[in-house]
Amino acid sequence: MNYSEIFQNQLTALRTEGRYRQFAELERPLGMYPRARWFQTPDAEPKEVVIWCSNDYLSMGHHPVVLTALHQAVDTGATGAGGTRNIAGTHHAHVQLEQTLALLHSKEAALLFTSGYSANQTALASLGLLLEDCVILSDDSNHNSMIEGIKRSGARKIIFKHNDLADLEQHLLHLPLAQPKIIAFESVYSMSGSIAPIPKITALARKYQALTYLDEVHAVGMYGALGGGVAQEMGVADEVDIIQGTLGKAFGLSGGYISASKEIVDCVRSFGNGFIFSTSLPPMIAAAAKASVTHLMGSSSERAQQREAVRRLRAALKQAGIPNLANDSHIVPVMVGDAFLAKAASDRLLTVHGIYVQPINYPTVARGTERLRFTPGPKHTQELIDQLVTALSEIWAHLKLPRL
Length: 404
Ligand code: PLP
Known about the structure:
Blueprint: H1 3-16, E1 25-27, E2 35-39, E3 47-51, H2 64-75, H3 92-104, E4 109-113, H4 116-130, E5 135-139, H5 144-153, E6 156-160, H6 165-173, E7 181-186, H7 198-207, E8 211-215, H8 230-233, E9 242-246, E10 256-260, H9 262-271, H10 273-276, H11 283-298, H12 301-320, E11 332-335, H13 339-353, E12 355-356, E13 359-360, E14 371-374, H14 382-398
Parallel strand pairs: 3-12, 5-6, 5-7, 7-8, 8-9
Antiparallel strand pairs: 1-2, 2-3, 4-10, 9-10, 11-14, 13-14
Helix pairs in contact: 2-11, 3-11, 4-5, 4-9, 12-14, 13-14
């Protein structure tokens, strides 16, 4: 058996389809963001580039409150956790952060995971398993972590059309009221930027006696008076049974969590394998995340500046005729519609214009909808926006891409 050839063939197939992933090797020196250093090869002198696709949406990764909390935590020994939560790995910083997250979402409790991915996978797997004969209704655009969690739960899965209330209700109608069900969906869909009609989904959930599980990964820190997410902004956070979030995007660090009633959190804590059998988050990260969450609960200026940058970028793209997907969120997807062209546009942005944005290809998005996904932040100035749109205009001409 030639294992090497089998693996090589798999990689060749990816290359042939234009889907082989190449990572940009970056360094984000303090005080420079969104400017960064790009190492074209590990040994080459780094080149200065502007990052336009980071999920550190509000630049909290370098915020002074985060840096201070991290330094203090390291200096007082809160480095690695030293164990799973059950075996010597529950630190004061974890418990404090969980209390803060519960407060952020006005829920009774919260539970930390090492990533948002693990939070979704573990929580959905546990809930679907614990509710006998459970059906999970899942939006067709849900993130892979939710899909994997649902798969692991062993529950029956029904996929409803993206943000389609009529389709969701059709499925609910055909299920017995007494059968346990969970509607699993996201608030902001990260690749299209579409936003879920949360109040209408929670109303359907009430009508058909379903639990709601809402992934707010791309919304926590960003929406709502406290940064609690879109459910908070729409005034329906208490209608959602389980809110899931990440500490790795707007909060600028890493880790994930769920926030829900005491019983639900206790069940996932007690039955969730991905929680039980994994070393807990480094307490220094938990301490810094608490500082970040607390800061964004009390400050809206980062959110306001970020929204202004989004507005300005959209206006500049419109003026230049660069096609971008309309939505009500902070995500600006510029549509290319071809894997090779999306890669070529991204390569040219980086090598010729010093602008870094990763091409988004299948399976992250459907074939034929390949795109460049821009995430303007508070530090993307008008000058950087103008520079980006000038570069995109040059590339649209160079690659003969259609304009609006
Ligand atoms: N949910 C959604 C919608 C995501 O886009 C992601 C990651 O990008 C995750 C969950 C996983 O979160 P994390 O990056 O914290 O693992």
